[in-house]
Amino acid sequence: MISAEAYPDLPPRRKPVQKAIIAAAMFVVGRAFQSLSRSEPLIRHEVATWPEGLTLMMKLQPDGSSVALQKQPDGTVRFMGMHFDEAQADVVIYFKTVEAAFKMFTAQMGIDVAYAQHCMCARGDLSNTVSVVRSLGITECYLFPAIISKHLVKRLPAIPFWRKQGLRLKTYLLGIPFGI
What we know:
By secondary structure, the protein is α+β, with helices and mostly antiparallel strands.
């Protein structure tokens, strides 16, 4: 009879390429959210309901990438960086696995589907968390074309075509690279 000690422990795969893509996508989403919070009325309306100084963090569990955003006194959101103390965040969205985060950040799965499939969880006030998720959905609608974003959100927001294209262009050219 062969005992369990005869078999070596196999460490889990590290998935460095997927983790690098997730880190890059978190940066893009964070900077796009910051940029859109200055000019998109739907996001400004959502952010206005947040308490002053609310800090949002998205984190890949257990020790993966993270991104932090904070509401400013002028009603915009500021990108706080990729390294932030988790204990100081008011709302934290945790992605449980690399595969789930990869699917979400590469537009293969929406945030509502990920939550329903228990691929993610959140810590913080529920009303703030729901508002953050709605704002992230609007941000995704700007980052991806309608044919992709209609699978990421339950209902596409009613955004006039020219405003959407103009803000999308501003977000990609100025918002993501420079934070404007």
